[in-house]
Each structure stands twice: as C-alpha cells, then as structure tokens.
Amino acid sequence: MRCLVLDTDALTHGSGLGLLPAIEIVIASLPHKAYIARPVYKECTQTGIAHHLDGWQEKGLLHEPVDYRKLRGGDERFREIFRRYRGALSRADCASFVTAESNGPSGILTCENLLSEAAERFGILALDLFDVIRYAVKLGYLTDVAAKARCEVWDRDKFRAGRPNGYKGTYTEEFEFREKSKPIPDLASAKADPPRMPGHS
Amino acid sequence: MTIQLGEAVHQVRSAFGLDPATVAKAADLDTQSLLRYESGEQELPGEVVWRLSDVLGVPLEDIDSSEVLGSHIDSIAVRFKADYGAISPGVRLAVARAAAAAGDYVQLEELAGREPRFSSLVKRFPTDSYLPAGKVWQAGRDLAMNVRSIMGIVGHVPSMRSLVDALGISMMWQKLPNDIAGYGLCDEIHGPTIVVNVNGRNVNELIRRFTLAHEICHVLFDRDYLKEMSAFDTYDELYSYADGQWDPREVRANAFAIHLLLPELALRESWGELRGDVRKLMTKFGVNYEAVRCHLDNYRLLHLSERISRIPTTASDEWKIAESGELWYPAFDVIPIERRHALACLAFRLWRERRITTSRLREVLAVRLSDVELRDLAELYEEPAAA
Fold first, then answer.
1. Which of A38, A78, A115 sits opposite B61 (nearest CB)?
2. Is some CB atom of chain A closer than 8 A to the CB atom of B303?
3. I need a labelling partner for B162 at 20 to 30 A (CA). Which of A68, A70, A167, B79 fits?
4. What pLDDT sits at residue B327?
5. Domains in chain B, ordered, with CATH?
6. Predicted pLDDT at B140
7. CA A112, A113, A118: angle at the middle one, nearest 5?
8. CA distances (Å), A22 to each of A140, A170, B182, in order?
9. Which of B319, B287, B246, B322 is nearest to B144 (CA)?
C-alpha cells in the first residue's frame, strides 16, 4: 500500500474514539503518506476536524489536497464512478476514489460499508478503524489492553458510529477473525522508507 | 459533441438569463474568476464545478456532451420562456435550486427501487391540448371529473397533499415573492413536482388546496406546453375561469381546480342543502372564498351569493389537520427548504439502510453538520406513510 486516502467520517469517528494519534501513526508509516481529496478536506473543515489535518500537513504527513480534475483522466474516471454509483456516493466519495486510484496500490480509510465495498471493486484496499487499531498494536503504539479499551464502545453498543461492519462482538474475537480473514499489508516496505517528519527518527 | 466545462457553465448561465455577478455571488466566487473559468482561461477546480452545479441546478460534473447539457438547460430554461424579462434573478436561482433538489429526489427514488414517477404519470395521463375557443372551462371541468373518477374520489377531496402523493407528484416548498402561488416541473430529469410558495396566501390551508389543484392540472396536462405558458402562477390569476379573460391554459387549470375540489353536481346539491350558506360550503369542501364565489358566478347561482359580503377564508381545524404534516420545527431549518421534506425523509431512510454514504447524505441535505448533529436530526425524521 503506497498511500492512504482518508474519508471524512473515519476521521470524525476516529476523533470521537481518541484514535486520531493511531491514524497519525499509520499514516506516518506509509511510504507515500496520506492523500486527501480536496472536497474531503473541505468536508472536514465543515465538520470541525480540519485542525487535525492542518497539524498533520505541517508534520509532512499529508500531501497537499488533491483536486481530482487535475489528475490525468480524472474527469472521465470521476464520471464513470459517479454514474456507476449514482445517488449512493457523494461527489466527494467519487473524488476520493479517483485520487486513490491515481496513486498506485492505495487504501482508503472509511467507516462506510458502501464505500468499502465500492473500494474493493476498484482494487483499493478498504481499511476501517479496527484496522487502524490493529496497525497501532502491531507498530507497538497501542498495547492489547489499550486497544481493547478503545473497542469497548463497539462491544457495548451495536449502533455506535464507526463500528466496523460485521464486528464480531468483542475486541479479541474480531482481532482473531481479522488476522485470519484480512491480513493487513506488510508494513516492512513502509519501514524501509521512514516518514520524514520532525521529531521522528 | 464533447463540451468544455467552462463553456457549459457559460451556456447554462446565459440560457437562464443570469448575469455573472449573480451566479458568482451565489457560488461564493468573485465575478472575474467566474468569467475566467467560463472563457477557459482558468481551469475549474472540482469543488467549484460542484458549487456551480448546485447554484445552476444542472449536474455539470456529470455532463460530457452538448446534447445532454442541452436537455438539462431546456428542462429548466423553458420555465422562463413566456415572460422572460419579468423574472427576477432571485426567482431564477430559486427555480434552479428546486430543479437540483427535484433531480436529487429522482435519483434517490431510483436507488430506492421505486418506479419512475414521470413515466408512470405519462402512461396514466397523456397531455391534453384540447382548448376549444369559448369552451375552455368545460375542458377543465371534464379533465377534473376524469381525474376524480380515476382516483376514485367521491364528494370532497379529503386531503390535497395525499392526492398529490397518490398521483406520484412530489411536493416542494419554496420562499418566493409574495405574489407567486406556485409552479410545476415535469420531465424525466426532475420528475413531476409541484413547488408551492410558503409566502403569501398559501399559508391558508384552503388557498393552498386550490393552488395544488391548479398546479396538478398543469403537471398532468400542460407539461408539453410549458414554453407557451407563464412561468409562475400568481394569486391574482387563480380562481377565475371566465373564457377570454386569461391565458386559456390558466383558465382551464382554474376550472379544473375548482371542479376537482367541488364538482358541479355537488355544488348544486350542497348549495340548496346548505341554503346558500357560503361559509358552510367552504368548510364542507375545503375551498377558499374567492374560488367558491367564482364557481357560483359561473353556474349563475350568484343571485344568492351576491347578497353575502366577502367572507374571510379561514380553514377549520379539520382542514388544517388534513393538509398538515409538514416539518416546520426550527430544528429542520438547517436544511434548505427545498430539501427539507420528502427528499430529506427518503435520504435519511436510505442512510439508515446504509444505501447512501454519510457524505452523500450531507450533500443531499446541503448541510454542514457534524456526525452527531446529523444523527440527532435523523431521529426527528420519519418517512411519511404512503398515501
């Protein structure tokens, strides 16, 4: 996975669950950092979480917001996706896909089931907040106990925003299930290309 | 033929009779930038394209040929044809907003697997050009009786809102200048839609019933003749159906409306039964004073009614309840009025069913709400029961 495109709601729910530092760690581990489509950046401004993105951008974690129209064939690809998912996906969603596709093997961080399904059809790896937790655990940022604590809201509340689709019911069950069914991409390549950010070696 | 986006923006703006400053202001741009985008001197960023799409009511980001653009332009600009110069820029932008909302509603209905309302309506009600000189009002009466029969209406119309729903017409509210009662949109892109002005006399339920009845006639039978018609129905022109006084299509729509609400036979029977009590007649059939008065005039029952001084149109509680159901609470004000009702109800339903994304929900509602605020609002929304 070369880069990760961020969806507004993953950032919003991640923020609500105190997972933004974990997301930041994941982004920092990527060879090409994270992209964010310009409209998504705008949505984040509107929903009040843009200051995190500004902070990340200052640390060199985020590339400049990308306008899908400036990417080669961006307009045509946008229309294709827009028509295929007419009515179901927003213009910002479609723009995120165009951005993700144009960056080679990419992932998209989203809490939207619909967006994950669409992403996988386009060959884009869909990650959710539980994957972020798994990454954080593997990178040693979160302990098992801390990760478990983060998931307690999902264990308790089936309808909690940001709860991964098909969540097994407890952190341990979900973790085991995912280890078998959805191995997360190897971060070794990411480590070979360490993030250039102030304060990180 | 392919078309450049800047050129498309220019074509839409010109066809809608909007000056660059008005469009630029509505899209939060400066006029010079808009002109540079239109001339192709500067490339349009994606999000500016979307803002212009919302302002102009045409999905520019989805248009790649001049033919498709033409069909979008025609479907909206046709509303401005008959009295082109008399329509203010504010009203033109309002029509574009209504068109955008109506288009979104059609799209969501398709996603929900509903039968397309426009093609169903076309199958059920072919347009009618029958406007015989000197007998236009009879044509309106016949059409009304036909619709009453098709819809199985006996006696009074219990709720015009429900009838509009049952006909497959979507109802939308807008804040328009006080003299405008409403207008209709009816094509494949926007679906059959009646736009009702919340300002002016429509506040009164009985007057609103008449406005709806009048617009039903235009949507069902005049949809192919929009170019010849006045764009908006004003309160002054409603009610009269004397031949030769107004545009024949308006005369027919007025005759249609009053006969839909109060057919000739019911009028004659009730008039005798109620001993010429206009107030009781208004209450029984849910019709406003002016319309009843014109109706009595036209059936030469005036000799009784003329003794009665003007009666203020006051809707009884029964009619208030029958025509209510709108979302007027302050909490809903965050959603633009065009999108606050049927469109928002359907969008929330599809969002709950995870058939549209949260980002799409925000787009459809045209809101900038946080997730928590959206969830709070969702709790207040329930889709109205089918009519």
1. A78
2. no
3. B79
4. 56
5. 5-88 (1.10.260.40), 117-323 (1.10.10.2910), 329-386 (no CATH)
6. 92
7. 100
8. 10, 20, 54
9. B287
Distance set, CA B52 to CA B13, B29, B44, B311 (Å): 10, 10, 10, 47
DSSP 8-state symbol, B246: S
Among residues B93, B118, B94, which one has the least CA distance to residue B106? B118
Q: Which residue has the tokens 């509340």?
A: A157
Distance CA A25, CA A141 (A): 8
Token pair for residue B203? 């506040």
SS3 state at A168: coil
A positions 106-165 inside 8 Å of B (CB): 112-115, 161
Copy the structure tokens of residue A144. 């098992």
Structure tokens at A134: 């798994």
- Intervals of chain A under pLDDT 50: 188, 190-201
Q: How far is A71 from chain B (nearest CA, A)?
A: 11
Torsion sign across C-alpha atoms A80, A86, A88, A93: positive
Distance CA B198, CA B240 (A): 22
Q: For residue A140, what are the contacts with CB-CB under 8 A and spacing of at least 6?
A: none
Question: Is there a contact between B363 and A90 if contact means CB atoms under 8 Å apart?
Answer: yes
Strand, helix or coil for residue B31: helix
The token pair at A68 is 């899908």
Find the DSSP H helices in B167-301: 205-221, 248-261, 264-273, 278-285, 289-298
DSSP symbol at B386: P
Total number of residues shown for chain A: 201
**Beta strand B170-174 with A106-109: parallel, antiparallel or unpaired?**
unpaired
Residues of chain B with pLDDT under 70: 82-84, 227, 230-231, 234-245, 303-309, 325-330, 382-387
Q: pLDDT tens-digit profile of B71-108?
A: 999 888 888 876 667 789 999 999 999 999 999 999 99
The amino acid present at A174, given as its one-letter code, is E
The residues near B116 (Cβ < 8 Å, ≥ 6 apart) are B106, B109, B110, B188, B191
pLDDT at res. A139: 85
Largest CA distance in chain A: 47
- Burial (CB count within 10 angstroms: exposed 0-12, middle 13-18, buried 19+), residue A177: middle
Task: Please tell me the predicted confidence (pLDDT) of residue B146.
Answer: 96
B92, B42, B62: which is closest to A70 by C-alpha? Answer: B42
Q: Which of B98, B124, B94 is nearest to B116 (CA)?
A: B124
- State the ipTM, two decimals: 0.87
